[in-house]
Amino acid sequence: MVKMSELTHYTQQLLQVERFKDYCPNGLQVEGKAEVRKIISGVTASMALLEAAHQAHADLVLVHHGYFWRGEDARVVGIKRNRLAFLLQHDINLLTYHLPLDAHPELGNNVQLGRVLGFPLTGFAGETNMIAHATLTHTTTLRALSAHIESTLQRAPLVIGDPEKLVQKVAWCTGAAQGYIEDAIALGVDAFISGEISEQTTHQALESGVSYISAGHHVTERYGVQALGQHLADKFGITHEFIDIGNPV
Questions:
Q1: % residues pLDDT > 90 (the chain)
Q2: Strand pairing category for 60-65 and 38-44
Q3: Residue in 188, 154, 186 with CA at minimum distance from that of residue 168
Q4: DSSP bridge pairs for 240
Q5: By residue range, what is the domain housing residue 29?
Q6: What CATH number should be reported for the domain holding residue 28?
Q7: pLDDT of 200-229, one tens digit each?
Q8: What does the radius of gyration of the chain's CA atoms come to, in whole angstroms?
Q9: What's the rounded Cα separation, in Å, for the pair 38 and 57?
């Protein structure tokens, strides 16, 4: 087992949390047991994940999407009350890392998604290196790239652009990073991949000539938290299990 304080301190340093101006507090959001034997990781700290973690005898739930987002109602009522009550009742820690987990150069969501998709990482760009980019080993079409993403992630993406367009340079940022399309355009890539899409993203893609692939917020962010959870398990000699609570978005 490992002391929760030791695990948290290590993870804060590993992810360089102080570098990021985030929309939520990163680190320990709900305090539970002082010692940890088992980590359950997941994308979002939904009640379904909390209940599954309790059934799996977790001491720590590690997620990308936690609680206490900027601008949300601060009152502990309804869904928030139920989730916090469940964690406190069962003495389970909740550890959350948002932007620091997206951008980490080894364990982050962007790097891990690139590995899953087989993209040979070239480098990073944008604010706090939030965008990853690559030059593919072989030129492909937008249609073929989209089919590869769908087959790998098991979710049909929404694609903006000419299906027969040739693609070799790609950039990507997981989750709701459609706003980074202008940074991708500046990089001169052929296609930009993220999780979600906004109304204006369609026009930006069509008018710039940079194709856009909305591959799914949840499915693009499944991999960083798994990598971090396993890293912590290996580091401290404890157990880790990832539980995927599906989400069509």
A1: 99
A2: parallel
A3: 188
A4: 39
A5: 2-102+221-242
A6: 3.40.1390.30
A7: 999 999 999 999 999 999 999 999 999 999
A8: 19
A9: 7
